[in-house]
Amino acid sequence: MGRASLLILIAPLWIAASVSDPQLRNHSCYKQISTLLDTWEVSRFWRLEDTGPVEIHRTATGQQGIWLESHKHPGGKIEIIQLSGTKLTRVTWNPGSCDPTETKETLSYDRVKLNDAFSDEYLDRILKENRAGIIYAWSPHMPLSVDGRYRVQRAATQLNLRVFVALDPHADSAMAKAIVTRRGWDTSTLRRLESIELFNRGMGNHYPVMVVFKNGNIVGPVFPGVKEESVYLKFISERLAKK
Fold first, then answer.
1. Same-domain pairing of 68 and 45
2. Looking at 106, 140, 167, which one is the last position of a domain?
3. C-alpha span between 189 and 120 (Å, rounded)
4. Residue 53 in contact with residue 68, Cβ under 8 Å?
5. How many CB atoms lie within 10 A of CB 182?
6. Is the dihedral of CA 36, 41, 45, 51 positive or negative?
7. Residues 8 and 58 in one domain
8. How do the residues of the chain divide into helix, strand and coil, expressed in percent and rounded to 5?
9. Which domain holds residue 61?
10. Same domain, yes or no, for 94 and 117?
């Protein structure tokens, strides 16, 4: 099973955080649902991922690599899911009952394939070994994402940062390899994006897309599209300046 198959990859929409769990608040079992959510993550900033027929919201947690999802089904069923790269816990409230059921799954993947991918494990290694840097995802099917890499690299060089490159997981292999060879890029730029953490942050919705990290954590939202070098430089500097 590929990691991307777990995710709904559409343009995200953040919802207001002034009210806790607005998508769930009117449910008859909200007290029990919110109690569970509080044990998993008190500060929740939900993002709408899919509008139907099952309405899906997702939020990061204070622990990188662990995400929460709420699934509202037609008819009133609610599922709250805690997802990491290795485990999935699903708590379900069926209509007419506030006594939930819980199931747990261990997620397994093709380890050989992930060895050469831009996986969660590879991401963790990057975050641990580098004080700060940039992750940039490209696709051979989006020519501007090829040119955009140079602009990001020039901005990063001014800030003495490394750029780590990930490939569109659905890219045509021959096309990607031809571009990498012709441009003289390192073969690490062929690592296919397979990180749940990065997918959940919105990487994979559009190419190119980049994100900044520092001190072991992803900083702020992803930055999609090709920009001028000065725009990249401003964005990266602002991300690094955040406490």
1. yes
2. 106
3. 16
4. no
5. 9
6. negative
7. yes
8. 35, 30, 40
9. 3-106
10. no
